[in-house]
Automatic annotation (TrEMBL):
Name of protein: phosphoribosylglycinamide formyltransferase 1
Organism: Pseudonocardia xishanensis
Domain Formyl transferase N-terminal: 49-159
Keywords for the protein's UniProt record, in alphabetical order: Purine biosynthesis, Transferase
EC number annotated for this UniProt entry: 2.1.2.2
Length: 220
C-alpha cells in the first residue's frame, strides 16, 4: 500500500496498517514533514513521484489521508486504485477540512461526517464506498467538529482497510443533492462572513489554532 498525505491522521493510519499486517510500501508526504519512517519520501508534488509510487506498490492500492495534494494524470493513469478518506460529507462539503468544517458551522448544519471514496479526475467527486455521520450540537464550535471529523476519518480507514485490501468494496455514485466546494480560497475569504450569527462558532479553532496559524490570524 502507498500512503499519501500529511499530519497525525496519516501516520495514525500508517501505524494501524502495519499493526494489521498490511504492507506499507511507501509514504508520500509534504516537504518539511517530521518523520523517521524509512519508507517515506517528501515532495512538493505527488505527481512528480508517480513512477516511484508505481515501482514501490506491491498491491495497487493508494490511500489518500489528510492529503492536500491534487492527483493529476501522472498518478491517475497508473494501474492503481486510489482511496481518499475525506473530512466531510459528500457532495455537499468537498474541499479542505479547514474550510468545509467552518462553512458547515456557518450553515448551522445539524450533522457532519467523513467519506471514503474512490479518487477520479475531479475534486472529491469520485464514487462513495462508505461514510460516517455524527450530530453537531448547537453549542459545538470548530474545534469540536474537527475533532469528531478526525475520529470519523480514522474509523472509516480502520473499518474498511481489510475490505479494500481484499477488493471487496462496492463503490456507489455520490448521492443527489447540493454540491459545494470549499478550498483554500474559501478559507481565506471566511472573514467576509463576520455578520453570520454562527461566525464565532465557525472560527473558534481551539487547539487547531496552532495547526492553522494563518486562519487563526485572519479569522480573529
Amino acid at each position: 500500500m502507498i500512503f499519501v498525505g500529511n499530519g497525525a491522521l496519516l501516520w495514525r493510519a500508517v501505524a494501524h496498517a502495519k499493526e494489521a499486517g498490511q504492507p506499507v510500501d511507501l509514504v508520500v508526504t509534504g516537504p518539511g514533514a517530521h518523520h523517521q519512517d524509512p519508507a517515506a519520501v517528501d515532495t512538493h508534488d505527488v505527481n512528480a513521484v508517480a513512477q516511484d509510487i508505481d515501482a514501490a506498490s506491491s498491491d495497487g492500492i493508494i490511500w489518500s489521508i489528510d492529503n492536500a495534494f491534487v492527483f493529476r494524470a501522472p498518478v491517475l493513469e497508473l494501474d492503481q486504485q486510489i482511496y481518499n478518506v475525506h473530512g466531510g460529507p459528500l457532495p455537499a462539503y468537498r474541499g479542505l477540512p479547514l474550510a468545509t468544517v467552518a462553512h458547515a458551522l456557518l450553515n448551522d448544519e445539524p450533522e457532519y461526517g467523513a467519506t471514503l471514496h474512490h479518487v477520479d479526475a475531479g475534486l472529491d467527486t469520485g464514487p462513495v464506498i462508505d461514510e460516517r455521520r455524527f450530530p453537531i450540537a448547537p453549542d459545538d464550535v470548530f474545534e469540536d467538529v474537527m475533532l469528531a471529523t478526525i475520529d470519523a476519518c480514522h474509523e472509516l480507514f480502520v473499518d474498511n482497510l481489510d475490505d479494500v485490501a481484499a477488493g471487496r468494496c462496492t463503490p456507489r455514485p455520490q448521492p443527489d443533492g447540493p454540491s459545494g466546494y470549499y478550498g483554500l480560497h474559501a478559507a481565506r475569504q471566511l472573514d467576509r462572513h463576520r455578520d453570520n450569527p454562527h461566525y464565532a462558532r465557525a472560527t473558534d479553532l481551539g487547539l487547531f489554532a496552532d495547526f492553522y496559524p494563518e486562519a487563526a490570524a485572519a479569522w480573529s
